[in-house]
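HUMAN: Forgive my ignorance: could you write out one protein's sequence and backbone structure tokens?

ASSISTANT:
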Amino acid sequence: MSTEYPLAGSPETSESPKYECSLCLKRYKRREHLFRHIGSHTSQRPYQCNSCNGAFQRADVLKRHLRTCDGGASRASTRRRACDRCCWYSTDTGSSSRLSQHSPTKDTPKDQDLNTQFTDPPPPPSTSTSNTMMPWGLTMEDLQNFGTSPTNTFFDPAPMQYTSPTWPDFSALPSEGPAAFETPVSSDNPRKSLHFLDKFTSNTGLVSSFDCGTHEQREQVAASLDQQILSELQQRIMTMPALGMDIPSPLILESNSDTSSTSELPLDWFNDPLSLKTHEILLLVEEVVTIKPRNSSVTLDWSSALRDACLQFFSPSNIRRFLGFYWAIWHPNVNFVHRPTFDMLAAKPTVLAAMALIGACVSPDMPDNEDARTWFNCVEEMVFIDDDFNSDLTYQPSGNIAIQRRKIQAVQAAYIVCLYQNWEGADASKSRIRRYRFATLVSTARDIGITAARHLNYSELGRHEFEWKEYAAREELIRLFTWIFLLDSAFVIFNNLPPQMVIKEIRMHMATPEPCFQATTADQCHHQLQLFLPARSLYWTTSFRGSFESLCKDDLSVNTRHLLATLGPLNLFALTSAIHSQIFQFRSAVGSFQLRAPIQNALSNWRDIWQLFSSTFPQGITPHVTIEDPHIQPEDLWKRMGFFRYAPEYWLLAHLMADRLAVLGTSKPENELEPLDEGPLDPILSRYDQTSMRQVNDLIMGFQTFQI
């Protein structure tokens, strides 16, 4: 029975169809039904009966035909029973991490070790059935196993679906060459509540911790991405007949064939340029799995099953889908990649793999989240051993930074690894990131030269002199160093870890306003720079360090206030994080809180600047739109404000901590000599470098109770 029209009274009838065919405008309630329907729009009939020479579009139609065609009964009798059909690829979830060996008598345990999970299956039984007349070298038994499940799509389960015997072995290709809104933004009084920080310190995971929207919103993004990818897929299908080969219908075949070769690839990869990126990622993963250094975090063993799982997870369609999730759901939270000039085909495979993992982590599909964890350590290892990341290359502020984009992307990839491991990884991974990987990242940033992250005065340049890609590269470097400092401050605030960066070394420009960074053309970008940062603006002569030092003064000028308000929420978030860094230094010092005046000045000035920003740039106007805006479309989600819109809560936490330090600084110790091993290590937080954020959450809960 066709599944395109569900029976009355079925659960599906309660939902309105939301997946529409772009060719005939038919609508379906499930996207897999839409993908199967697309097959009716092609004229190809690749499934041929070798008895009557009849041709069919779909494998299930041919299978039914064989039961009535002369000679079909004998072939049908060879159908395998359930225990004989070892499904090497689990079809219940379409999950790449579900590869396992099937036993006819016992199911695989759920807690099976990853190495066992990716162990090669036993050799398939031999068959004498002739396959000379079957399409693409498939056997009759293969066709008997090609189900009509709605999961047989271009986007769900196995990547080894449609194989092409004419495509060369993938591993023989050359390796990589050079090449919920709780407080309004416009709040007049930042002293509200710590609701976001309470949630942030109570949960783990990127979606639960950051500003990633509701599950329904992420489902809408997924549906939009499916439509976009499907449209591109249809275009590729229409161009494939020019290659002179038979084209399969969009109904994907399940890879349950005993004779399928793991070295063969889906036909739709043949003219997909991203397949080369998939290959590059595969080679890098194979390298870190087969050549493990001592104490490597990679525990997988290389096998053909693991190879297939890697090809599936980093398949071209998955890369597109995961990067779609990255831009729409994650990018606003950590926005250091310049989307308008980002090119997947020119990007380093390391940054592409890292971005894909983040996208899979924030995907609304649970199998994507689980599959991503399989590759966490592999991608971490290949990112931190990358030659571009470890090369001794320095920049000059006056040089051409755009030609060094690969180095910037190598550092971006390392930062993204720190993100997903710290919020999605195991406790051991979180500790490794804080203590080792992030320290290496900071050292690499210093090797590049933090002072090199500066802009030219573009407002003095005419449009014909303005180099958009040069601006994008410099802005990416500035934002990358800003986010490295912000992650360092996050470790200070939430893990009570001493900072690895000092404010005095951050002598670089601050990030330009979001309208400049989000401009989709060179003309728009140049215009926005002229509008927000004219040639005589203080921005061109002000560094992050200078701005923070001015913030700590009691006589902050009006021009400086307006400049900092114009630069937007990301820079204001960085400044309030700098206040936290200074508070840590003061509370870690021996003696009373003697330098409270600069901190009090910074807190007072920051509050006034945030209020000025809120009144000048009200919420609801791009790019200061939030995830809760009912009018925002999935394609515009990447332009919204991320979690740093909650900067007032960071300010409030710093204010409360400074007040407590001031009170503690006036108290006198009971004894001149404190007994050994007695007394707190810190006046506010008692434990340093804590993986759990429990003590910070307890502090926040205490502050909130006190305010109530």
